[in-house]
Amino acid sequence: MASQNNGEHGKPIKVALLGCGTVGTEVVRLLTDQAADLTARVGAPVEIAGIAVRRPHKHRDVPAELLTTDAEALVESDVDVVVEVIGGIEPARTLLLAALRSGKAVVTANKALLAEHSAELFEASDASGADLYFEAAVAGAIPLLRPLRESLAGDRITRVMGIVNGTTNFILSGMDSTGASYAETLEEATQLGYAEADPTADVDGFDAASKAAILASLAFHSRVTAADVHREGISSVSAADIAAAKALGRTVKLLAICERVITDGVEGISVRVHPAMIPTSHPLASVHGAFNAVFVEADAAGEMMFYGQGAGGAPTASAVLGDLVAVARNRVHRGRGPRESAYAGLPVRPMGQTPTRYHISLDVADRAGVLSQVAAVFAEHDVSIAAVRQEGRVDDASLVIVTHAATDAALRSTVDKIGGLPVVREVVSVMRVEGEEL
Length: 438
Ligand code: HSE
Description:
Elements: E1 13-18, H1 22-33, H2 35-42, E2 46-52, E3 67-68, H3 71-76, E4 81-84, H4 92-101, E5 105-108, H5 111-128, E6 132-133, H6 145-151, E7 157-163, H7 166-178, H8 182-191, H9 200-203, H10 206-220, E8 230-231, H11 239-247, E9 250-263, E10 266-279, E11 291-298, E12 302-309, H12 313-332, E13 355-365, H13 370-380, E14 385-392, E15 396-403, E16 406-407, H14 408-419, E17 424-433
Parallel strand pairs: 1-2, 1-4, 2-3, 4-5, 5-6, 8-10, 10-17
Antiparallel strand pairs: 7-9, 7-11, 9-10, 11-12, 13-15, 13-16, 13-17, 14-15
Bound molecules: L-homoserine.
């Protein structure tokens, strides 16, 4: 029975929790500490029916009688909602498909799973009418997917650009403030516990690429998987890159960018993760340390920024609980959350066709005709120069060039050819520029 707001509550919503690490433990704590409020908000008590873990003896901070090693049986039992915080593809995929197929609502924080198997999950959700919510999969506590999925559903989103990985933002912020190298800063981040012992998923951009795929799918009503995302990590960002950015009033961030692009008159989307220079006046430039922020542009709404903690037990559990309340309310009031919306089917353009802008810093011989030789290479590739700055030294010069937008392929070829010119002694720094028009 639905709650009538008269103090009477419906029958309990039973929850199966899969996984009980940092996030799962916080989910249990919040569900317990806030039980009365959650009951009032949902219209029925929300109760944990069981917690599936691999090693029960390691989980002394949750009620022992709830622990089980049999996740499959827990999912098959008489529960209403399955909350998954295990991460990774299997066994999460099989368990969640089973839950959805049997009509149980699913709340998951699993970005890798959503970025690879969302089609299959949404199909199962549609077939049974069960809810599939995943706010915690991108940017932790920050309400971002619900705004894209629901609040902005009447608008036309043109661009989503954000810092969605705290580890890499912590490292780049550190390099910016100390001038230290990538390797030194990564080591410090590892010692402080900000970077994992194996930081590959973060520093090579895999984590951000999964999140970019989810954001692009929702923003552009198209199906985008992690494999569609152009991905570059931060391990090749040098102290020279950071210094070059600073000299021009810019800072370097690892950005996840999802935007509409027109190629030969046909609309598509570009979805990419790479380091880029942004002006220090851009709102994303002031996002430091392990924080996340996402800048969204839409036709009618204009510019918006979402900011907050993108990782950690309690912040991520906050997003999980928000979803849990939503699916529990839907259950109590016999409603249904939003379904997958991939009707637009916009194609993902290859990186080479994506319009970008480059910052190029060179050490060149300081003599007549050098600038014209360099400029000729840009002209040859139909790349327009937006700004040039030259500083002479004793027998050479530093030359900094910022381009107008051109295809990434044309810019790459330009840089390759310039690097081979005899008058160019060193290509000091090459980086894409975002967040400003020239
Ligand atoms: N490892 C991620 C980060 C958090 O550094 O932001 C989980 O996605």
